[in-house]
C-alpha cells in the first residue's frame, strides 16, 4: 500500500518536519517508528489547531443485517480466516428521548468475515429486552449509566410520582465486549445480564442473569481465560455485611449442551474498604497463579445509586473521583481462593484496562493503562463528544490521558525486612515496592513508554498476543493513540526497549487493535493487527485494516460503504 516509513531520531526539527510532511500528504497513511527515547517534552494541546468534528462517529446509524461484500485493496493473508466481531453504541435516541452518555447507546454488533482473501460485513442491533422495550414505547424506558429513564408521560401526575419508588429495571444493553464462557460467545456490559449470541447470524439466543448462578450483582466485560478454557471474572455483591469484590470462576466443561455459566463459583470475596462506597473497576489482572484486583479511588456511593430514581439523577451522579485515597492492589491465589496478606498501595490513579500481568522472581508484575485523574467517565458525555471548534478543543484539553505504567508487587514479604527497603528484586524495572513502618508496601511505578507517547496523546484500548502471552513475560502491546477524544492512531509499544511504532491516516479513527497470530507462530509479534478504521467524512469509506504486526506496515484493507459509529471492543474468532 501507500505506507511511508519515517525512521527518526526525534528532535524538535524532525517533529516539525514530520508534522509538515504529514499535512501535505494528508491522504497517505503515516507510519512512524520512534527508535529512541529523547526526553523531549511535548504537550499535546489539540496539536495547535482546532480538532476536527467527530459528531458523525457518535451518532445513530442504520444496521446492515444482510451480508455485503467489502472491496479489498492489497492482500489479506491466506491463513486469515475468521470473524472480527465488534460491539459498541449505535443508537442514541428513541422518539424524543435522548441518551446523555456515550456508554448509554444501544449495542450495535459488527461482523467482518474474512475468508480466503475476501471480506464481508454485516451489523445488527442487539435485540436486548431494553432495545425492544424502548422501540415499542418509542422512548427510553430503561435507565442507562448516564441517563435516567423518565416516568411514562401517559400516566397521571400521581402515577408518575409513585413510579419513582418502583424498583428500577436493570439494563441488558450489553454493549461493551464479546466474552467467552464454555466456548460460547456472550455480549457483556457490567450489569447482571449477558446476552448469548450466534456469531454467524449475530442473533441473540439467550439472556443470562449472573444472579441466578452466584451471589453477585454483575461482572466485568473483561474476563480472563486459562488455556483450558476456564474463565475468571470479578463482580460486586451488595449484602448486609456491606459490599464485596468477588473473584468468579466458570469451569470450561459443559455437562449438557444448553448450559450457560452453570458451575460458576465465587472463589474469593474481598471486603470493600468502605461498606457503602466500593470502588468502580472495569478490568483486573491475572497471572498463571494469581488474580490482581485494583481498588482505585473512583467511588460508587451506593446510597446515591440506589436512590437515583427518587432523586431524579442518573447513576453517574453516584460516582466520584476521590484522590484523597490511594490506590490499593489485592492479590488472590486463584487455585486456593486465598487473599494474600500483602497490603500494596500506590498513589491515586485510575485504570480502565490492564495490559498484562505475570510472575517473575517472587513478584507479580502488572502493567496498566493509567490516568492520573478518574473524572474521565464524566468527560465522555455525548454533548462533549459532539462539540465543534474551540469548545471541542477545550473538552479535549481538559481530559486526562492514559499512559502505560508497570507496578511490581512482591509476593512473600519478609516480616523482618527493614523499613524503607525496596523489596523488588527485578533489575530490569525501576518500579519499586518499599516497606513502610506500618507494614504496608508502597509501590512506585515505572513508565513503560518513551516520552514520544505524549505526542500521540497517550494510549488506550490495549491488546496483546493474548493466546500465547497472557499471564507471561512479554514484549509488545498494541493500542490506540488519543490525539482526539476517540483513537486517532494505532500504536505498537515495545515494553522492553521502550520504543513505539505508529500507524495514522489523517481524518480516520481506528478502533481497538486486535492481534491475530500466524498459525504455528513462535515469535510474539508474528501475526496481524485488525482494526476497523472509520471517518466522519462522507466522501470517504470506512474500512477494515490489516497491518503486519511486526513492522506495522499495511497488508490490505477492506472498504465498506456503510456508516459506522466508534465502538468499544471486539474479538477475533477463527473459522
Ligand atoms: Fe473496556
From TrEMBL:
Catalytic activity: 5-cis-lycopene + O2 = 5-cis-10'-apo-lycopenal + (3E,5E)-6,10-dimethylundeca-3,5,9-trien-2-one; 13-cis-lycopene + O2 = 13-cis-10'-apo-lycopenal + (3E,5E)-6,10-dimethylundeca-3,5,9-trien-2-one; all-trans-zeaxanthin + 2 O2 = 4,9-dimethyldodeca-2,4,6,8,10-pentaenedial + 2 (3R)-hydroxy-beta-ionone; (3R,6R)-3-hydroxy-10'-apo-alpha-carotenal + O2 = (3R,6R)-hydroxy-alpha-ionone + 4,9-dimethyldodeca-2,4,6,8,10-pentaenedial
Swiss-Prot/TrEMBL cofactor(s): Fe(2+)
Listed EC numbers: 1.13.11.71
UniProt xrefs under InterPro entries: Carotenoid_Oase (IPR004294)
Alphabetical keyword list: Dioxygenase, Iron, Lipid metabolism, Metal-binding, Mitochondrion, Oxidoreductase
Primary site of residence: mitochondrion
Localization in the cell: Mitochondrion
Pfam families: RPE65
Keyword Oxidoreductase: yes
Function: Broad specificity mitochondrial dioxygenase that mediates the asymmetric oxidative cleavage of carotenoids. Cleaves carotenes (pure hydrocarbon carotenoids) such as all-trans-beta-carotene and lycopene as well as xanthophylls (oxygenated carotenoids) such as zeaxanthin, lutein and beta-cryptoxanthin at both the 9,10 and the 9',10' carbon-carbon double bond. Through its function in carotenoids metabolism regulates oxidative stress and the production of important signaling molecules.
Similarity comment text for this entry: Belongs to the carotenoid oxygenase family.
Name the UniProt record assigns to this protein: Carotenoid-cleaving dioxygenase, mitochondrial
Annotated source species: Rangifer tarandus platyrhynchus
Amino acid at each position: 500500500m501507500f505506507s511511508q516509513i519515517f525512521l527518526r531520531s526525534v528532535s524538535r526539527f524532525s517533529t516539525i518536519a514530520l508534522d509538515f510532511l504529514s499535512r501535505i500528504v494528508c491522504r497517505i497513511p503515516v507510519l512512524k517508528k520512534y527508535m529512541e527515547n529523547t526526553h523531549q517534552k511535548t504537550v499535546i494541546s489539540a496539536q495547535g489547531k482546532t480538532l476536527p468534528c467527530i459528531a458523525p462517529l457518535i451518532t445513530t446509524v442504520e444496521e446492515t443485517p444482510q451480508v455485503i461484500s467489502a472491496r479489498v485493496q492489497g492482500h489479506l493473508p491466506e491463513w486469515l480466516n475468521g470473524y472480527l466481531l465488534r460491539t459498541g453504541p449505535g443508537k442514541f435516541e428513541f422518539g424524543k428521548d435522548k441518551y446523555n452518555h456515550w456508554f448509554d447507546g444501544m449495542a450495535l454488533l459488527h461482523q467482518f468475515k474474512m475468508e480466503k482473501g475476501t471480506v464481508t460485513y454485516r451489523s445488527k442491533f442487539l435485540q436486548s429486552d431494553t432495545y425492544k422495550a424502548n422501540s415499542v414505547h418509542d422512548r427510553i424506558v430503561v435507565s442507562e449509566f448516564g441517563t435516567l429513564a423518565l416516568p411514562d408521560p401517559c400516566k397521571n401526575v400521581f402515577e408518575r410520582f409513585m413510579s419513582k419508588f418502583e424498583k428500577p429495571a436493570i439494563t441488558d444493553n450489553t454493549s461493551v465486549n464479546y466474552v467467552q464462557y464454555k466456548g460460547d460467545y456472550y455480549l457483556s456490559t457490567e450489569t447482571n445480564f449477558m446476552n448469548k449470541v450466534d456469531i454467524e447470524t449475530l442473533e441473540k439466543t439467550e439472556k443470562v442473569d449472573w444472579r441466578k448462578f452466584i451471589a453477585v450483582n454483575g461482572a466485568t466485560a473483561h474476563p480472563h481465560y486459562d488455556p483450558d478454557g476456564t474463565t475468571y471474572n470479578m463482580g460486586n455483591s451488595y449484602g448486609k455485611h456491606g459490599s464485596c469484590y468477588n473473584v468468579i470462576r466458570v469451569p470450561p466443561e459443559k455437562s449438557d449442551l444448553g448450559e450457560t455459566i452453570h458451575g460458576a463459583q465465587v472463589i474469593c470475596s474481598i471486603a470493600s474498604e468502605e461498606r457503602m462506597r466500593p470502588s468502580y473497576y472495569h478490568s483486573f489482572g491475572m497471572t498463571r497463579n494469581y488474580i490482581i484486583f485494583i481498588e482505585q479511588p473512583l467511588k460508587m456511593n451506593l446510597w446515591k445509586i440506589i436512590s437515583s430514581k427518587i432523586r431524579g439523577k442518573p447513576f453517574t451522579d453516584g460516582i466520584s473521583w476521590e484522590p484523597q485515597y490511594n490506590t490499593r492492589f489485592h492479590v488472590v491465589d486463584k487455585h486456593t481462593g486465598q487473599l494474600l496478606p500483602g497490603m500494596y498501595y500506590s498513589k491515586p490513579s485510575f485504570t480502565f484496562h490492564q495490559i498484562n500481568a505475570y510472575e517473575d522472581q517472587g513478584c507479580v508484575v502488572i502493567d496498566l493503562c493509567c490516568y492520573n485523574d478518574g473524572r474521565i467517565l464524566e468527560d465522555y458525555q455525548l454533548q462533549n463528544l459532539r462539540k465543534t471548534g474551540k469548545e471541542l478543543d477545550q473538552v479535549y484539553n481538559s481530559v486526562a490521558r492514559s499512559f502505560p505504567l508497570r507496578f511490581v508487587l512482591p509476593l512473600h514479604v519478609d516480616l523482618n525486612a527493614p523499613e524503607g527497603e525496596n523489596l523488588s528484586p527485578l533489575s530490569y524495572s525501576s518500579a519499586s515496592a518499599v516497606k513502610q513502618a506500618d507494614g504496608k508496601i508502597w509501590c512506585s511505578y515505572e513508565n513503560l513508554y518513551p516520552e514520544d507517547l505524549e505526542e500521540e496523546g497517550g494510549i488506550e484500548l490495549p491488546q496483546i498476543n493474548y493466546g500465547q502471552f497472557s499471564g507471561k513475560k512479554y514484549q509488545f502491546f498494541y493500542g490506540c493513540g488519543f490525539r482526539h477524544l476517540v483513537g486517532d492512531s494505532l500504536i505498537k509499544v515495545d515494553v522492553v526497549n521502550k520504543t513505539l511504532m505508529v500507524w495514522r491516516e489523517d481524518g480516520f479513527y481506528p478502533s481497538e487493535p486486535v492481534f491475530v497470530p500466524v498459525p504455528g507462530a513462535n515469535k510474539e509479534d508474528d501475526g496481524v493487527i485488525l482494526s476497523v478504521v472509520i471517518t466522519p467524512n462522507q466522501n470517504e469509506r470506512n474500512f477494515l485494516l490489516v497491518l503486519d504486526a511486526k513492522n506495522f506496515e499495511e497488508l490490505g484493507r477492506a472498504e465498506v460503504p456503510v456508516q459506522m459509529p466508534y465502538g468499544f471492543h471486539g474479538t477475533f474468532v477463527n473459522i
